């Protein structure tokens, strides 16, 4: 099975995260897939941003949910970049995408875009929330899904199976061989995040992971030899 290197919010270690510039750089670096995050604006647009608030990554303040898309467009997301919407990312790069949704409402909006643009083979959907994974699976037949976890219990594999996820994306700093072997035994892929150092890559190899999410483009090149 091919080892996958996934660009985290594009390549956020060298470009403003979740911007078209970052996604283009990830594609140029040859990332196998590009990860991004989705939040709904006040008027229902799928804004590409990680946090629920705009404070950390833009020159604005306040929750995304309280802003219209037009208001978001006025903000600087880094180096003059603007906050994109999902449709713009789909048009700007050709690489496969891994779209992280924050809640069930975002799942429903994403499902509308995926169905209208026939994206089931291009867009994989991930979430920390079991109900959001289950919702997108119910709305988009055949969609590939990923359950994400930073901290988890012994039931994480059962949780993934219960919502129909094909993969687990787990914090590399807490990942154990026992969890990986259990997941593989149940037919699940395991992706480690965030893999940014040679030490992390050695751990990826030792754990026999199926892929890694990284902030840096050079990890893909190095990872081909390490993992």
TrEMBL record:
PROSITE patterns: GP_PDE. Residues 3-224 form the GP-PDE domain. InterPro entries: GP_PDE_dom, PLC-like_Pdiesterase_TIM-brl. It holds the Pfam family GDPD. This is Glycerophosphodiester phosphodiesterase.
């Amino acid at each position: 099975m091919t080892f996958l290197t996934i660009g985290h919010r594009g390549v956020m270690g060298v470009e403003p995260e979740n911007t078209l510039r970052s996604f283009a750089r990830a594609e140029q670096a040859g990332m196998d897939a590009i990860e991004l995050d989705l939040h709904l604006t006040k008027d229902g647009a799928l804004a590409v941003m990680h946090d629920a608030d705009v404070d950390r990554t833009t020159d604005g303040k306040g929750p995304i949910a309280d802003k219209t898309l037009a208001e978001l467009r006025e903000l600087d997301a880094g180096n003059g970049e603007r906050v994109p919407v999902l449709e713009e990312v789909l048009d700007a790069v050709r690489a496969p995408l891994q779209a992280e949704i924050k809640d069930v409402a975002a799942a429903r909006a994403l499902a509308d875009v995926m169905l209208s643009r026939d994206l089931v083979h291009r867009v994989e959907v991930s979430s920390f929330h079991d109900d959001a994974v289950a919702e997108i699976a119910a709305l988009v037949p055949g969609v590939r899904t990923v359950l994400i976890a930073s901290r988890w219990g012994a039931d994480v594999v059962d949780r993934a199976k219960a919502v129909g996820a094909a993969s687990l994306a787990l914090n590399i700093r807490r990942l154990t061989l026992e969890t990986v072997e259990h997941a593989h035994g149940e037919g699940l892929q395991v992706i480690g995040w965030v893999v940014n150092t040679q030490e992390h890559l050695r751990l990826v190899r030792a754990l026999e992971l199926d892929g890694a999410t990284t902030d840096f483009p050079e990890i893909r090149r190095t990872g081909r030899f390490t993992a």
